[in-house]
């Protein structure tokens, strides 16, 4: 619409100028389109044919435009119309407005095409052990997709979803503070690990109470791993053992390999270290503890076409991919 800033056009039939104020709610882009068609064709009938309108509709819109401007725009000459001096002065502004609209539509269409192909996946740090493989397998089926990946802790993942920086999340227990649509696609086992030379590494059966005196390494409060740690002892009515907090599973693994303590950790994060004999999984009552992996998105913000395809891919093909990565016991959906 025409900007409501003060604009001066010559008034037809008079030698004085006319001030246009607050016309934004009266003059429309559609009127500008009709106006240009009428000027170019010099006929309301031909303008109507070009625009798929009736001649009376064109005539009515030009009458409204003239009334809003307070100026005569066309003089009739038989079946044709001739633009007045005011109309001629208005033409470049109308062309600019219509062209700006076309550019805006083009930008929106281009952006929408990009958004339709965009898949922004955020995953908890533990999921880095399989998330990239899932995305790469999806890319093979959908090479046109614009895949973007980010990795964060649990709170960071939830914040990215809430802020609209991600379309889909890969994580364990779904958040409670926001409504999500979540699909379970694989089991997520947690185990207790130690250095291979730790005295408990050779034990056949370890009671929970035996672990209370031991030093532990833990993730930050609120993380899935920390929740497993605390639930394991609270469930048995035991006090939490002394623990040192670390900011990543990688640091925890390094500390355990340095024989600094024990740690609960996702079995999906230690496959290579176990194969290399650098870590041992302890035989503890109540372990492993099985959780689930989910692919999810905000309920209030459904994902776009490509992101929906990714969700369906993870639901359908994710279990088989996880079995291939981690074996039949720890890679299957429930």
UniProtKB/TrEMBL annotation:
Residues 27-84 form the HTH lysR-type domain. PROSITE patterns: HTH_LYSR. The keyword Coiled coil does not apply. GO terms for molecular function: DNA-binding transcription factor activity; transcription cis-regulatory region binding. Keywords: DNA-binding, Plasmid, Transcription, Transcription regulation. Transmembrane segments: none annotated. Belongs to the LysR transcriptional regulatory family. PANTHER family: HTH-TYPE TRANSCRIPTIONAL ACTIVATOR CMPR, HTH-TYPE TRANSCRIPTIONAL REGULATOR. This is HTH-type transcriptional regulator CbbR. It comes from Gemmobacter fulvus.
């Amino acid at each position: 619409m025409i900007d409501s800033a003060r604009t001066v056009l010559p008034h037809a039939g008079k030698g004085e100028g006319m001030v246009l104020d607050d016309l934004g709610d009266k003059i429309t882009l559609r009127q500008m389109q009709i106006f240009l068609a009428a000027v170019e064709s010099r006929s309301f009938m031909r303008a109507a044919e070009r625009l798929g309108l009736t001649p009376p509709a064109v005539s009515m819109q030009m009458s409204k435009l003239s009334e809003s401007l307070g100026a005569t725009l066309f003089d009739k000459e038989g079946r044709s119309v001739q633009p007045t001096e005011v109309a001629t002065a208005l033409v470049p502004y109308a062309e600019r407005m219509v062209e700006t609209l076309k550019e805006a539509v083009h930008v929106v269409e281009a952006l929408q095409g990009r958004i339709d192909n965009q898949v922004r996946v955020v995953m908890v740090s533990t999921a880095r052990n399989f998330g990239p493989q899932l995305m790469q397998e999806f890319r093979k089926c959908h090479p046109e997709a614009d895949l973007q990946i980010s990795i964060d802790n649990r709170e960071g993942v939830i914040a990215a979803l809430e802020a609209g920086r991600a379309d889909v999340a890969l994580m364990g227990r779904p958040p409670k503070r926001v409504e999500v649509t979540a699909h379970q696609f694989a089991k997520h086992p947690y185990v207790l690990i130690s250095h291979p030379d730790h005295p408990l590494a050779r034990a056949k059966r370890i009671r929970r109470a035996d672990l209370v005196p031991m030093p532990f390494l833990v993730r930050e409060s609120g993380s899935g791993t920390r929740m497993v740690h605390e639930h394991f002892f609270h469930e048995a009515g035991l006090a939490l053992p002394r623990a040192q907090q670390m900011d990543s599973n990688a640091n925890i693994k390094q500390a355990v390999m340095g024989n600094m303590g024990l740690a609960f950790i996702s079995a999906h994060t230690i496959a290579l270290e176990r194969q290399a004999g650098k870590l041992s999984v302890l035989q503890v009552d109540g372990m492993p503890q099985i959780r689930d992996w989910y692919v999810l998105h905000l309920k209030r913000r459904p994902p776009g076409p490509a992101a929906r395809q990714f969700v369906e891919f993870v639901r359908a093909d994710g279990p088989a991919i996880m079995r291939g990565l981690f074996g039949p016991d720890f890679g299957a959906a429930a």
